[in-house]
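Reviewers asked in the last cycle whether our approach scales beyond single polypeptides. To address this, we selected a multi-component target totalling 585 residues and predicted its structure end to end. The input consisted of the following lines:
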Amino acid sequence: DDKLLTEPLSHPDFFSVKELFTLKDLFDARVHLGHKKGCRHRFMEPYIFGCRLDQDIIDLDQTMQHLQLALNFTAHVAYRGGIILFVSRRRQFCHLVESTARACGEYAHTRYWQGGLLTNAHIQFGPGVRLPDLLIFLSTLNNVFEPHVAIRDAAKMNIPTVGVVDTNCNPCLITYPIPGNDDSPTAMELYCKLFRMTIIRAKDKRRQSEAIEELQ
Amino acid sequence: AVGRVLRLCRRWGAGPCAQTLRLICTTTAVQKRNVGASGPEKYTEAFIKKQIEEFNLGKRHLANMMGEDPETFTQEDIDRAIAYLFPSGLFDKQARPLMKHPTEVFPEQRKIQWGEDGRPFHFLFYTGKQSYYSLMHETYEKFLNVQKHQDQLTAQDLPLQKEKRNLAGSRWLTKIELEEMLLEKVSDDDYSRFIQLLQKLVALPCADIEEKYIQKFSKEVPVQLQKVVIEPLQHDERGVAFSTGEGKRKTARATAIVYDNGTGKITVNGIDILHYFPVLQDREQLLFPFQFLGRIGKHDMVCTVSGGGRSAQAGAIRLASAKALRSFVTEKEVEFMRQAGLLTVDPRVKERKKPGQEGPRRKFTWKKR
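The resulting structure, written as structure tokens, was:
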């Protein structure tokens, strides 16, 4: 059992997540498009490649690196049987995110976030509840363009977060930020597809390793 | 334990005689923490199972006691047996002794939502309102399906179906019914959002595809008249068709027999209406059903009435005659009569006088000093 858990940690890319996407895929899905110059957040400036006709363009090389790290991390969490919670407060993509979560066998929360969900869980849900081990934000802002409460709560509860940060978002408290567009449908579908494929791959690999262990 | 020595008090600062024993008598009920704050009682599955076993055993014992066959002992027999063995004079039926299957006694509850490894079963568990949000998710999925189907039809240039659903005969589920269906609380906002989504779904042209799904949330509203049985006409020895009706108003009770092929003669307790009701208003009340249907000179009426005053008797006879006339008339006209208020029993009765007041509403004269 120990070997099962320590073996993936010795490889830099055990689940070969680099194969899942290329720079061209990101470009075709319009991931590099940011908001206008006036909406720019100060902490996003390192991730921005440039500004064209007042619209910010996100640096896709950095996005590639961050995306690879984030997908690798989610794969490891899924391999160890962790609970993954998809969070997004965009009404357009609420259905898409929920269906992705269902397809992976993980959980989603694309509705109104009640204050004590993570911090007051034992009273809201009942004693003995297990909190999520990873939060994936497909959009860090809520409906009033403020940072989602879950980022702060996850930081309080020591839960790692992976988040797609647009040019108007604050990447500070997110453990694995992914600078990229969170407004276009194509970009969101791409992210959902990538997360779904990594999680399914990681779970399949876990089942295979367990089967091999049992045979020995 | 009534009477417990709770404290051993010491008088502060004083000299030699410092200790004073104070006997404080309390019960264990006061010492328990606030039990109500933990929420409604939760029943485990094992507890319910045990209750079911005990119920079945008790049922067989009861059957033996009553001398009947334990195998064919139904719930009605149980109720009768309990009413016989434990006669109770209490007015409230729910306060009397009761022996029912545990699933009817203990309200349905949510079992533990997660498995042994701690992973919840439902994918929307962390939202807090999993059933409601999964319902919204499903309904939205049906909505997207219908839109896709519509797009396909328009792409093939086929006409979209436009059969109008009968909106008058159905209503959506009420909030309480929805709460019962989902087994969790639904707020007013959430309920209205759900109904709006359903209405949007129904408004689409191709909504017939998801008819089965929509029917889960709509209920039939039977037209009022379907429940009331209108009696057919009877014929007396001379071959004249007649019909009877009963009516009441305040304390007056009346029965009326309306004959066909008449001249408009009306008799009350053997006396002609001109003599029985000298006031015009009462006679107008009697004639109103006939005038409404346009049959003033066509029917004869013989009525008996007792109780009440003149106005109450007039109202009672009016109701009785309207009920009798239903048999002579088409269904549409019956519906018109019902909407005119001719077939409704007037629920107004004299309000009781309350203590501390002079009448039902009038208070005693208020004196400033």
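Residues 185-215 of chain A form the longest helix (31 residues). We regard this as preliminary and will revisit it once experimental data from Aim 1 are available.
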